[in-house]
Design brief:
Residues 172-557 form the Peptidase M3A/M3B catalytic domain. By secondary structure, the protein is mainly alpha-helical. Helix content is 64%, strand content 4%. It has helices at 5-11, 25-33, 41-68, 73-85, 87-102, 114-126, 130-150, 163-168, 175-213, 219-226, 234-263, 293-307, 309-320, 357-379, 390-393, 395-403, 414-447, 455-469, 480-484, 490-494, 500-516, 520-532, 539-546, 554-569, and strands at 154-156, 159-161, 324-327, 337-341, 346-353. A hairpin with a 4-residue loop joins strand 4 (337-341) and strand 5 (346-353).
C-alpha cells in the first residue's frame, strides 16, 4: 500500500498545544518538585522519559514538515517559534533535572542506564546558561541552509529542474549530456553560493562563541564533548585521513582510471566522476529499476520479504502509516534522512527519488536507520537508551545496503544485479576519500583556521584538500572557483563534525557483509541484536555485537581495501 502526501501530512500534524511550553511546564515542574530518593529514581525516570518523548516528537514533526515545505513561510515560522520559545525552556529544565538526578544520595544506575547516566553527567558539566539562547540562534542559522538549498532550481535544456533531477543526468552515458548537466548545476550552485558564504560567516562566530562560553579553546573541543567522543581522539582522525590518502586514494584512482580507459576518455573531468555512481565502463545507460516512488516501495518490500519477516513487517508498517515521503518536488529539502517520532516509536523517511539504482541504495540505507529506531525503541523503554552513539548509528543503514544485495533478483536481471553490486563496492572506495576530506576540512576550520577566517580561506583550503583526496579528476581549463566551493555541503552547515562516522560505519558494514557471505542467518541475527541494544553499551561493544571491529587504522583499512579489490576482480 503506497501512502499519499495527505497521509504524510496527517502523520506530521502537531496540535497547537504541543507547540507551547506551557503545555509541558507543569509536568516538568512536578518532576523538579519530587522528593527523589534512590529507590524512586526508576519511576521518576520513566515519567521524565515519556515527557521528553512528547516534547522531542513535537520538534521532530515540526522540523520534518518544514523540510517538506521549504517554500511555505508559515511552516518555517511555526518551527522557528518552537525553537525560540520551547527549546530554551526545555534545555534549562533538562539541565535542572539532570542536576537533580546527579544529586540523589546513594543512587547507582542500573547497568542498562549507566552509560546514559555518565553522559548526563558530562552534559551537565558542559552546560552554560549563555549557550541556551545562543543555541537557538545557532539552530535558526543552520535551518536557513535548508531554505536556501530547498528552493534551489536548475535551468537545463529549457527545463526547470530540482537539484536531484539535474544530478540524475550526471549518470548519462553521453559525455556531452553529463557536461551540460554539470555546468547547469555549477551555475545553479553559483547563484546560491554568496548566500551560503554569508551564512557560514554568520555560523563561525556563533560556533566559536559556543566553545568560548563552555571554557573550551575551540569548537572542535566543544563538539568532541557534545558528541561524547570518548573512544578516539583528533589524532586518530588525522591518522585516518593519512591512511585514506595512502591506502584508498590509489585504489579509487585505479578504478576510475580503468573505467575512463575502457570508455576511451582522455582524462576524468568533473562531469565524468560521480562518487555515488561511477560511470559504466561499457557506456551503458544507468540502471533505472523504477519510475515512481510507489514502484520503489514495492520493490523494496519484496527485497525485505526475502531478507527477514520481522524487518519486512516493519517496512510494511511504514508504507501503511504515512511514514515515507520519497518523491522529489519543488519546495522540498533536497537531502535524504530518517526522522524519528518516539511516542509512537515510528521512524519517518524523507527522500528525493528520480528513478535510479542509487535511489534503491539510499532507500535501503534510510530504512536501515528506520529499523534501528523500531528495534531499539521496542527494546528500550527509556527514550535516552534508543538509537545509539553516532559512531555506530550509520551501521544499521550501511549494513542494510549490503544485506539486501542477495534479495534483488526481482529488481534486476542477473547482469544488472552484478552491475548494482559492483557499484555498491565501488561506492565504498569512492566514498572514503570524500569522507576524509570532509573531516579534515572541519578539523582545520574549527581548530586551526582561527577566528578571522575568510571565505577565500575556506575556498583555498577546500581546493588544497580536493587535490589531495581527488587527484584523479582533471579540472584543467575550468574555473577552480567552482571546485573550491565543494565545502558548501549539507553537513558542514547543519551537522558540524558529523561525517567521519560514515567512514567508520562503512568499514564496519563491509566487515559485516564479509561475514554474511559465509553465514547469512547469523550475520542478520547479530545485526538485529546490536540494534536492540540501542544506547546501553559503549561503542566498541556495539561493534562486537554486530560482528564488526571498531577500527579505522591504516592496517585495518588496508585489509578491507584488499578484500574489496578481490571482490571487484571476481565480480563481487
Amino acid at each position: 500500500m503506497t501512502t499519499t502526501l495527505n497521509a504524510v501530512e496527517r502523520v506530521l500534524t502537531v496540535s497547537q498545544e504541543a507547540t507551547r511550553w506551557d503545555t509541558y511546564a507543569p509536568r516538568f515542574e512536578a518532576l523538579l518538585a519530587t522528593d527523589l530518593a534512590a529507590e524512586s529514581v526508576p519511576g521518576w525516570l520513566a515519567e521524565w522519559s515519556a515527557l521528553e518523548a512528547e516534547l522531542g516528537q513535537a520538534g521532530s514533526k515540526l522540523a520534518t514538515h518544514a523540510d517538506l515545505h521549504t517554500d511555505d513561510a508559515a511552516a518555517q515560522a511555526r518551527y522557528a517559534r518552537f525553537l525560540e520559545e520551547v527549546s530554551p525552556q526545555a534545555q534549562r529544565t533538562g539541565q535542572a533535572l539532570i542536576e537533580k538526578l546527579l544529586a540523589v544520595p546513594g543512587y547507582q544506575p542500573a547497568p542498562d542506564f549507566a552509560l546514559t547516566y555518565r553522559r548526563m553527567r558530562d552534559e551537565a558539566a558542559l552546560f552554560r546558561e549563555a549557550n541556551v539562547d545562543l543555541g537557538v540562534t545557532h539552530e535558526a542559522q543552520m535551518n536557513r541552509h535548508g531554505v536556501i538549498t530547498g528552493n534551489q532550481q536548475v535551468a537545463l535544456d529549457g527545463e526547470t529542474l530540482t537539484v536531484p533531477q539535474a544530478k540524475q543526468r550526471l549518470d548519462h552515458p553521453d559525455r556531452s549530456v553529463r557536461e551540460a548537466a554539470w555546468r547547469a548545476l555549477a551555475a545553479s550552485n553559483g547563484e546560491v553560493a554568496p548566500q551560503l558564504d554569508a551564512l557560514m560567516l554568520e555560523l563561525l562566530p556563533t560556533r566559536h562563541q559556543l566553545a568560548a562560553n563552555a571554557d573550551l579553546p575551540s569548537f572542535r573541543d566543544y563538539m568532541w564533548k557534545r558528541l561524547d567522543r570518548v573512544d578516539y581522539t583528533p589524532e586518530d582522525c588525522r591518522a585516518f585521513h593519512e591512511a585514506v590518502r595512502d591506502e584508498v586514494v590509489p585504489l579509487a584512482a585505479e578504478i576510475v582510471g580503468n573505467i575512463a580507459a575502457r570508455l576511451g576518455l582522455d582524462s576524468v573531468r568533473p562531469w565524468d566522476y560521480n562518487r555515488n555512481n561511477l560511470l559504466d565502463p561499457e557506456g551503458r545507460e544507468s540502471l533505472k529499476p523504477f519510475t515512481t516512488g510507489a514502484e520503489l516501495e514495492t520493490l523494496a518490500q519484496q527485497a525485505f520479504d526475502g531478507l527477514d519477516a520481522e524487518l519486512a513487517g516493519r517496512f510494511g508498517q511504514m508504507r501503511e502509516g504515512g511514514l515515507l515521503d520519497l518523491e522529489s518536488r519543488p519546495g522540498k529539502m533536497t537531502h535524504a534522512y530518517c526522522q524519528y517520532f518516539p511516542v509512537e516509536n515510528q521512524p519517518f523517511v524523507l527522500m528525493n527519488v528520480v528513478g535510479t539504482a542509487e535511489d534503491v541504495r539510499v532507500l535501503f540505507h534510510e530504512v536501515g536507520h528506520a529499523f534501528h529506531g523500531f528495534l531499539s525503541g521496542a527494546a528500550q523503554p527509556l527514550v535516552w537508551n534508543r538509537w545509539s552513539p553516532i559512531e555506530f548509528v550509520e551501521i544499521p543503514s550501511m549494513a542494510m545496503e549490503f544485506l539486501t544485495l542477495d534479495h534483488l533478483g526481482h529488481v534486476f536481471l542477473a547482469e544488472e544485479l552484478g552491475r548494482y553490486r559492483e557499484k555498491q563496492l565501488q561506492g565504498v572506495v569512492a566514498f572514503l576519500p570524500w569522507a576524509a576530506q570532509m573531516d579534515a576540512f572541519q578539523h582545520w576550520l574549527y581548530a586551526e583556521a582561527g577566528d578571522g577566517v575568510t571565505v577565500a580561506d575556506l575556498d583555498a583550503k577546500w581546493l588544497e584538500l580536493d587535490k589531495t583526496f581527488h587527484p584523479f579528476v582533471n579540472w584543467e581549463g575550468l574555473d577552480e572557483g567552482v571546485r573550491a566551493k565543494g565545502w558548501q555541503y549539507y553537513h558542514i552547515f547543519r551537522a558540524p563534525f558529523y561525517y567521519i562516522e560514515y567512514a567508520m560505519c562503512y568499514l564496519a558494514a563491509v566487515g559485516i557483509w564479509r561475514q554474511a557471505r559465509q553465514d547469512p542467518a547469523g550475520a542478520l541475527e547479530r545485526y538485529k541484536a546490536s540494534l536492540r541494544l540501542g544506547n546501553t553499551v559503549p561503542v566498541p561493544e556495539l561493534y562486537r555485537a554486530a560482528g564488526a571491529e571498531f577500527r579505522f587504522d591504516r592496517e585495518h583499512i588496508r585489509g578491507l581495501m584488499g578484500f574489496l579489490r578481490e571482490r571487484l576482480a571476481e565480480g563481487s
